[in-house]
What does this fold into?
Amino acid sequence: MATRHVLTDLAAAAVRAGLPEVELESVGGVDAAKRVAEGEKLDLVFLAEGALRRLADGGHVVADSVTPLMLSQVAVAVPAESEEPAAHDGGHAFPDAAGLREALQQASRIGYSTGPSGVALVKMIDGWGLGDELGQRMVQARPGIPVARSLAEGEVDLGFQQLSELVGQPGIRILGVLPPDCAIDTVFAGAVATAADDRAAALEVLRFFTSEAAAPIVAEHSFAPAGS
It folds into this structure.
């Protein structure tokens, strides 16, 4: 879901470049991986790189086609009265991990996503020994419901999600991405499905998504290059 908008724009740019049109469907990563593993007829698959590698190991996507596309950083946001689209100034939410721990302990309700970023956040909190202290205050967003909405509607007062999912949302203020010593980054990748009717055409589209022409589109949606 975090990549749905950027993939839509990349697919449109590919068509303008004379490549085949791609019909995209965006669903949660767990559901997407399950559908691919069950053999659904697809040409291209876009998921977190780790999930794609597991699908490749199972023979569900072509292993040597797995291509890192973009790096997504987890950011932190709080509610805001403004309905202006939220922006990110490029900075960090806190100076270091100690600042993040303090903010977590002070928050009354903490929102996080169902995706890989949410899993990583919970793992990090448990690693700090704060799992029991924060357990009752952790609010996982329902599938398909962005953390930004939970913030804007007052359900949580501190929210964590992919930066690309927070930018442009009303009713929130983005504090910044997580500091380097506790950053949660996800590399999203694409691969050709083994069930693809025309693997060569699918691979050509996938390669366009990593081209110089694609780079400004990726940046416009608040993603960094996969090699960052």
